[in-house]
Amino acid sequence: xxxxxxxxxxxxxLENQLLKKNKSLNEKYLExxxxxxLTNTINSLDDLNELFFNxxxxxxxxxxxxxxxxLIKNDVSNIFDTVSSFNIEExxxxxxxxxxxxxxxxxxxxxxxxxxxxxxxxxxHELFDSKxxxxxxxxxxxxxxxAIILFDKESxxxxxxxxxxxxxxxxxxxxxTSIAFQNVKLLESLKKSxxxxxxxxxxxxxxxxxxxxxxxxxxxxxxxxxxxxxDENEVIGNHFFIIFEKNNLLIDLIQKVxxxxxxxxxxxxxxxxxxxxxxxxxxxxxxxxxxxxxxxIVIAMDDLSKINKVKSTFKKYVSKNIxxxxxxxxxxxxxxxxxxxxxxxxxxxxxxxxMSEKLSPKQIVKLLNKYFQSMIDVVFKFNGTLDKIVGDELxxxxxxxxxxxxxxxxxxxxxxxxxxxxxxxxxxxxxxGFEPFKIGIGINKGKAVSGNIGSEQQMNYTVIGDTINxxxxxxxxxxxxxxxxxxxVKKSLTDDYKFKEISPIQVKGKSKPIDVWVxxxx
Length: 522
Known about the structure:
There is one protein chain. The protein has 3 domains: about 15-185, GAF domain (Beta-Lactamase), CATH 3.30.450.40; about 200-305, Beta-Lactamase; about 325-520, Alpha-Beta Plaits (2-Layer Sandwich). Helix content is about 45%, strand content about 30%. The chain contains 17 helices and 19 strands. The strands form 3 sheets. Strands 12, 13, 14, 15, 16, 17, 18 and 19 form an 8-stranded mixed sheet that branches. Strands 1, 2, 3, 4, 5 and 6 form a 6-stranded antiparallel sheet that branches. Strands 8-7-11-10-9 form a 5-stranded antiparallel sheet. The radius of gyration is 32 Å and the shape is flat.
């Protein structure tokens, strides 16, 4: 006869087993649910950078790895570049060269399946401060084009070994990543081969007119109708001879495209629309069917009067470089940023507060406007981007949004000419009884994040980062008539510029003094 105590213990053991089984099933369910979410996510992406970032972060989350990288084969060499990283110092990544000649990539290229990386696989674990690694291939047409590498599986007891289940999970992730990678590559190829159609679909504010083989207009959008000053029922089905009867030159261009089957572009074309002439950028392009036979013509018309009005308005408030960048690509209006190397120039007026106390508000505004005009003319002369004016301070960018190999030198030229322009400005205001302006300038160079900061309703194109902060500190330490530069700027300059090294300065936010060089005007 089974005792009540023994029977109770058996029930408790059974309950414990069921709880463990239930917990294990819940964990498996969670893993599968997460894997399904990841699959849905990566298959919905059409940007490779976003794809790899999501793959890395989500796979790290599923497998509980503390860090990882994604490698993709370079298009022009056998080197595999790091396209995404998680919790790994950038300097450590740069020290490791990845290729299929040796090490874990050689094995991955040969076997094309996931495996746990060991020391004999010639992976520099010390470089990544890791003891355990797991890798899986990214394939394209059954060729190795990349790899996902995860480091250091975490647990409550610390770093533990990767298991077979981890291999299976990463293998499943890499298969889905390979499929998504191929889809994106095919999409990119499709976009290139259909560039004209893509441009037409994306140019919402462009007037579009489609003409078939018989010369009849089959399609037109609202912008084209607005430019032509016609209704849709007047245009659709009619021959282009009738629609463009007042535009003999346009008719000649259409006939030329029809005979030569080549695209023609005319900038600032004079379109006659009833009693009004409109300046447009005109594009006449042949269209071909799947059999590569000529099937019609597409006309695209951009209203320059509207674009020029927008440009001229914005350029009164921000730099020409920023306006052009924003107008050339509608994606530039999205929130977000990217890291790049820039040169930053700060300039402000010395003793402006005490000077302004002696003047009326109208006098201050009038003087500042004239001063800023003379300074900004110099900025634009050397292709600088005016980021902002704060009080009596100017913040000028070089390298964003447009990059030039002479960005740093242009910043130096700007600063030197600012003093020359200031001399001319001062000579005029002194004659009117005002005190001369005195300025100091600071210039720094380095990595910074540039882009649109703010909200969807109100955003500002600017730069952020330690490089900017140091540039501002240099400006605040510069005395009247001085240009202070950092060692990063000095390295980019020739000896033609008369900068002299001075004693290091202590700036806010830096534990050690900063090496600086100075240029003194006069």
